[in-house]
């Protein structure tokens, strides 16, 4: 019976006086624009979160284990302790952070050098997909240590693959710790990276661990271990667990810690933006409701005939309710189609026009992400709004008596 009612509802809807006449096309256009705006806005919000998350995991690992000062501990023993506490550990790699100044062709810039164990780094970090030019391989034999440079720093300093540059590191005097000595080192650009975060691109350099240790004159000491687990979303629980197992000498943080405020802001703003943009869909749904009211008036004769042949009041209500659901389905289909087009235009515009200010948003580009949960929420919200909006005109049609409908003809 419901299939027959749906078929009758569809036949009444696609007539020239309903779907293609009056204010229905404009009402449907408003619904399409509302759904498209929801798709695009949710894709931007989800894309911001996933892009930042991917950058953090690729460049700093799923988690980091550090000490207040650089330590010469047996790192393999420390890795074994971590693996016993967290069996999902995939691999670990030593690293060291060194703040320095880069000098090249009369230009200087403050930089951060991250020295990594080249034998293990590819098991923990992911630089292969972030190479803009050159290579990410730091192991080829060279008289000058090789380095990977963030693209913003390379542009600012005029560095290209194969160029050599000098860095200056302040080292505390062995006799008088209040004084510093300068240590100068030289590196050669092996590759240029898009590290995903604006500040990293502007000041980040990746080098071999041994070369960084020699530059800072710290022997075999290192800052800590970079960790990679089987699941990046498990990193927070793992970091909390390791903090308790390793004890106070160690400091454990996961990929989310350094940008906690940004991730929290996204979580708070996402539902707010969803409901604000949903207002467009609400307005369009009320327009559809008004359109169906007019349609009920125009269909007095058809309603009277249907009731004469045995259709009940509930059947008539279902016929017009189905019309609202059909309009909602059409709006969702073309809304998603337009939303995908808007996402494509946004991606094109940000690559050519630089829409995202890296200084403000920490990212200079966003990989748009249309999540399944967002898509389902948009579909459910739209269909529910359209269904509720059609109840009033549907009940109006259901109350019409056959005599009244035929008398008006």
Describe the structure in your own words.
With 409 residues, the protein is α+β, with helices and mostly antiparallel strands. It has two domains: 199 residues, no CATH class; 193 residues, no CATH class. 55% of the residues lie in helices and 21% in strands. It contains 14 helices and ten strands. A six-stranded mixed β-barrel has the order 2-3-8-5-7-6. β6 and β7 form a beta hairpin. α2 crosses α11 and α2 packs antiparallel against α13. It is elongated. It starts with a helix and ends with a helix.
Arrangement of strands in the largest sheet? 2-3-8-5-7-6
Largest sheet: 6 strands, mixed, barrel
Number of individual domains: 2
What class do helices, strands and sheet pairing give?
alpha+beta
The stretches of 5 or more residues where confidence is low (pLDDT under 50) are none
Arithmetic mean of pLDDT:
80
Q: Helix count?
A: 14
Count all strands and give the number: 10
In short:
With 409 residues, this protein is α+β, with helices and mostly antiparallel strands.
Main attributes of the structure:
409 residues; alpha+beta; six-stranded mixed β-barrel; 14 helices
SSE diagram, text form:
Layout: H1 2-13, H2 24-60, E1 63-71, H3 75-85, E2 89-104, E3 107-116, H4 121-124, E4 131-134, E5 146-150, H5 151-157, E6 164-172, E7 180-193, H6 198-203, E8 204-208, H7 209-216, E9 222-229, H8 235-246, E10 250-254, H9 260-298, H10 300-308, H11 313-353, H12 358-361, H13 372-398, H14 402-407
Parallel strand pairs: 3-8, 5-7
Antiparallel strand pairs: 1-9, 1-10, 2-3, 2-6, 2-9, 4-7, 5-8, 6-7
Helix pairs in contact: 1-11, 2-9, 2-11, 2-13, 9-11, 9-13, 11-13
């Amino acid at each position: 019976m419901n299939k027959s009612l749906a078929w009758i509802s569809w036949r009444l809807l696609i007539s020239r006086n309903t779907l293609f006449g009056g204010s229905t096309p404009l009402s449907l256009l408003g619904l399409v624009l509302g759904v498209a705006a929801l798709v695009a806005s949710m894709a931007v919000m989800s894309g911001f979160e996933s892009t930042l998350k991917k950058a953090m995991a690729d460049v700093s690992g799923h988690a980091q284990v550090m000490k207040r000062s650089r330590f010469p501990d047996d790192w393999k023993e420390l890795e074994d302790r971590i693996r016993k506490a967290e069996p999902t550990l995939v691999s670990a790699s030593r690293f060291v952070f060194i703040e320095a100044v880069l000098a090249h062709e009369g230009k200087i810039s403050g930089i951060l050098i991250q020295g990594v164990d080249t034998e293990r780094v590819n098991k923990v970090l992911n630089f292969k997909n972030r190479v803009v030019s050159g290579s990410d391989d730091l192991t080829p034999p060279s008289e000058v240590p090789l380095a990977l440079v963030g693209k913003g720093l390379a542009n600012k300093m005029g560095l290209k693959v194969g160029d050599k540059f000098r860095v200056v590191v302040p080292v505390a005097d062995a006799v008088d710790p209040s004084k510093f000595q300068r240590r100068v080192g030289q590196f050669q650009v092996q590759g240029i990276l898009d590290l995903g975060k604006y500040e990293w691109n502007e000041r980040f350099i990746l080098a071999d661990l041994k070369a960084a240790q020699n530059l800072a004159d710290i022997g075999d000491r290192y800052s800590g271990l970079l960790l990679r687990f089987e699941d990046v979303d498990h990193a927070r629980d793992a970091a909390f667990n390791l903090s308790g197992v390793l004890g106070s000498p160690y400091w454990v943080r996961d990929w989310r810690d350094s940008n906690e405020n940004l991730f929290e802001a996204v979580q708070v703003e996402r539902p707010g933006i969803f409901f604000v943009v949903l207002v467009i869909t609400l307005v369009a749904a009320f327009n559809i409701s008004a359109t169906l009211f007019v349609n009920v008036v125009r269909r007095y004769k058809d309603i009277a005939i249907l009731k004469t042949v045995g259709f009940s009041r509930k059947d008539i209500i279902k016929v017009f309710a189905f019309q609202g659901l059909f309009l909602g389905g059409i709006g969702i289909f073309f809304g998603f189609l337009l939303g995908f087009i808007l996402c494509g235009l946004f991606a094109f515009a940000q690559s050519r026009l630089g829409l995202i200010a890296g200084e403000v948003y920490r990212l200079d580009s966003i990989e748009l992400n249309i999540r399944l949960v967002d898509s389902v929420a948009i579909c459910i919200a739209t269909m529910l709004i359209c269904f509720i909006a059609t109840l009033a005109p549907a009940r109006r049609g259901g109350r019409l008596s056959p005599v009244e409908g035929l008398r008006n003809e």
